[in-house]
Amino acid sequence: MNATVADFVLDRLTEWGVRRIFGYPGDGINGFLGALDRAGEKLEFVQARHEEMAAFMATGHAKFTEELGVCLATSGPGAIHLLNGLYDARLDGAPVLALVGQQRRMSLGAEYQQEVDLEGLFSDVAAFVQTCMDASQARHLIDRAARIALDRRCVAAIVFPADVQIERAVASPPRMHGVVLSSAGWTRPIVRPREHDLDQAARVLNAGSRVAILAGQGARGAADELTKVADVLGAGIAKALLGKDILPDDLSFVTGSIGLLGTRPSYELMRGCDTLLIVGSSFPYSEWLPEEGQARCVQIDIDGSALAIRYPVEVPLIGDAQETLRLLLPRLRRNENGSFRSKIEDDVHEWRNTLERRAHAPADPLNPELVAFELSRRLPERCILTADSGSSTVWWAQQIRVRAGMRASLSGGLATMGSAVPYAIAAKLAHPDRPVVAFLGDGAAQMGGLMELATAQRYADRWTEPTFVVCIFNNRDLNMVTWEQRVLAGDPEYPASQTLPDLPYAQIAELIGLKGIRVDDPALLAVALEDAFTCGLPVVVEAVVDPDIPPMPPHVSFEQGANLVQALLRGDPDRSGVLRKTLRAKVGDLITRS
Description:
The protein is α/β, with parallel strands linked by helices. The strands form three sheets. Strands 2-1-3-4-6-5 form a six-stranded parallel beta sheet, with helices on both faces.
């Protein structure tokens, strides 16, 4: 049988190292589905339950492998469904390629069924988007899309009309005017700043007596260099949420996450520093950084357009984080005044005590912080962690302590709900020998996570290490928004928008074919988690937690406190529990610090 354009595209993708495509079928991509069948073991097609989930899986694959993630969707509605997952990739800098079907060329422009302007649709989310209108285009479109996505860490999209997919492939176009001859292959360069800029950065850092480091996902792979720089400068290191796994949390000078979901040591670190070194982070919330004029700043980023957009930077360094830090190190002088570093370490020790105390505070029925605290203590070596968006993300950010060798990610820039389970599935398929743990709330579970459990069950027999734990925080409430209503707007909880159906998540997991564990008693929590990690099956842990436990930020402003009081006075339906548990948390923090 003669190879089609779809056959050629799949073969070309394997030359780019692609071994797995995430998607959902539709007649607009029948040419690709037939080609995938003919490809056999060269390419695995992972069938998600929804195109959005397939795009999340492609993003998760890219994040946890540093490879190109690929998703496939049919024309019209299928293509539209991809968008949220693709925006997640775009905002977090994950290289993803979307292959999308389209109506036949002869019907375009006739307002045919499912005809959508796909180039217009993807023009914002994708850095490269083209329609393959001729078989001879396929070669250079795939090569260019893959190279751009990898090089710029961005999204690329190629639209294939249905009739083009089944045309006879043109592997080598004829030698003539207008023909483009491309090739596969790309390697990441090592980018170094100029010597003059490194010298200038060292002068700024050496002049500081109280140095803070903010590290993000762009610093991944530079753990040793970060540690050495922090030791020489007597600095503490705060981590943006996407950089949670770049350094282990058991280091005494690592203050943990920063921002609204961050830690008090990170807040104090930024408040007390006179010099700031930002490495591979585009953390967006400048109110959690030093006040303008308080600190001199050096920033390192591989992307020059990301420099000096969060805080005024005196010396911007365009370069690879590991290489730039390696070149900086010989230029740095040891900070002999250890008082700032000692205070950082004392703050970290105190914070850990605070977290343990918070976790064991009374709740009805379970304290969500206790669930995260106990789960953190049982995380297997080399496990991969994913999180969704919601109040569960706060407990994940604050209570989960990452150790060396672990990986972790979530939807950072987009902060979308629905990503934790598809991320976890992609991670497990890419690394079948590693344990995977997903954190999500009941809102995210109902939004899409529950159905993707069927995807996990379908592919579980491919995993050489069976540990796959999905922890669902069941509080019957869209809890993060509820607290934002109270604290940011001064409005009481609005049950019509916030209350969720109380679904039996553990039972649903059992019906799907997974193991389900429901726990609503603190005395049984440890046993339940031990069972989850030792049973040898994919597991859903349904933790029935108290919605009134406040997701406390590291610092509560007067305005936020006043808004909360106003919300309670306006008749918040949970005002008694909210007031009691918020006061308990705040008073307890003060006692711990005294």
